[in-house]
Structure formats: C-alpha cells, structure tokens
Amino acid sequence: MYIRIAEKVMENPETVTLYFSYEFPSVPGQFVMVDVPGKEEIPVSLSSESSITVKAVGDTTQKMLNLGKGTIVGIRGPYGNGFKAVEGNKLVVGGGIGIAPLRYLVRWLERDIDVVYGVKTVKEFIFFEELRAKNVVFITENGSFGEKGTVIDILESMDLGKYDQIYVCGPEMMIASILNLFEREKILPLTQISVERYMKCGIGICGSCCIDPFGLRVCVEGPVFNGEILKNSEIGKYHRNGSGRKYVWKN
Questions:
Q1: Which of 79, 104, 138 is the last residue of a domain?
Q2: Where in the sequence is the domain holding 144, given as residue range(s)?
Q3: Burial bucket for residue 147 (CB in 10 Å: 0-12, 13-18, 19+)
C-alpha cells in the first residue's frame, strides 16, 4: 500500500520518527518493508501502531530523514513474529536505535516494567521525555547523562532473577554479550530478543535473512526469538551483505 506521512519528528540529528494517518494491525516487534522511491526497499520496526523510527546508517535511511510531511511511501506488512505479553515483572533492555520497537512494547505492556536504555552519548537518546515517566535506568558510555558505562555493566549489577520476562533489542554485539550473561544467570528461557538481518522479500521466500545453523528466517520465525534459540547461532559472530557474503562482526 502507499501511505502519506502525517507527521515527522526529528528525534535527534540522525534519527527521525515518521507517523502515518493509519494504524497498522500489529504487535510490538513486528516490522514493515518500506519502499522509498529511488532507493532500496528496507525493513523497519514499528515504533508504535502508526509510526516507524529510523537512524541514518545508509542511503535509504538517510533519504528517509529528508522526507517531508505529506510525502507518500510504499509500505508492505506488518510482518514477522513480534513480542509476546507475559504476566509478572518485566525488564525491557534497549541499546541505541533498538529502543524504537521497545517503545511500542513499553506502551503495550503498560505496567510492571523496568527499562534499561543505553547509548554512547546523551545526544543519541530518543523518546527521552516519554520514557523518563517510566522506571528507567538511562546509561551513556561517556557518562554524559545517567549511569556511566554500558548496558552490560548495569545488567551485571542487577538482580535479574526477580524478572518473569526480559525483552531485548539493540546492537548485535550487545545482544551477544547479553546472551552470555543470561546463560550464566540461567535465565535464557525467560527472554525475548529482537534481532536484525538483511532482508529482500520480508515474507520468507528469498532466504537472505536465515540464521545459521538452524536456517531460521528472521522475517518469519523472528525477528523476535527466545534467547535459548539464539545462544548457539551466528549472532555476534558474523552477518551477510546483500549478496550473501559473510562478514565477521567487529567490536
């Protein structure tokens, strides 16, 4: 379908939220395929029932930062396996732009939620005013706001055993470290983790987003997986470009 942008909010100089005059029938964690004229179609997680949030990391996302209110874009979806609601105490862990689908999740879960949200510098925070109304630990690597350190540093100091479910989205190396921590704490079964992979079709046909060694398709079986499934996968080891060539992740 083609949808007009109803509102544009610059979250910071590199990140924009585009709101549409349409509510997608969706759950948090699902994504849509966004077609910007003249650029590659890309997957973007929903940051609410009617919005997407992107950071400029490539040609397509950079162009999306420059789209104006009233611009029409092509959208397919929502697709994928989203987060599942669980009763009890919940911890939401976000790193960088990974907070976008988690913002939708926090709105959806509504109560019994603690949030850990980390970025490199204070300038990278998004949805700050909305999230600060919740029980949130803000973290910056350089100490420019909140706790100084990384998401892992804070998680290691917390009593993770008090949570009935932990939701995670963020950079892949952060996720890899979290998987190791959660395995040591024996809480992997209580986790739901959203991962990102290159996608072409978004509907499980092309296989470009499959995760070794199980062949799970991020677009269909994911992007949200239980931590036990991801622990012995390629996560944190390598990824692929559009041609399928493997690239080793670097810290």
A1: 79
A2: 90-248
A3: middle
pLDDT band at 200 (very low <50, low <70, confident <90, very high): confident
Do 8 and 73 belong to one domain?
yes
Cα 129 to Cα 114, 118, 164, 234: the distances in Å are: 16, 15, 27, 36
Cβ contacts of 30 within 8 Å, gap of 6 or more:
24, 45, 46, 77, 78, 79, 80, 81, 82
User: Given the structure tokens 């892949």, which residue do they identify?
Assistant: 172
Residue 111: CB atoms within 10 A of its CB come to: 6
Write the burial class of residue 241 (CB in 10 Å: 0-12 exposed, 13-18 middle, 19+ buried).
exposed
Q: What is the pTM of this model?
A: 0.94
Pairing state between β 191-194 and 238-240? unpaired
- pLDDT tens, 22-43? 999 999 999 999 998 888 899 9
Ramachandran bin of 148, using left for φ above 0, alpha for ψ from -120 to 50, beta for the remaining angles: beta
DSSP-derived 3-state class of residue 65 = helix
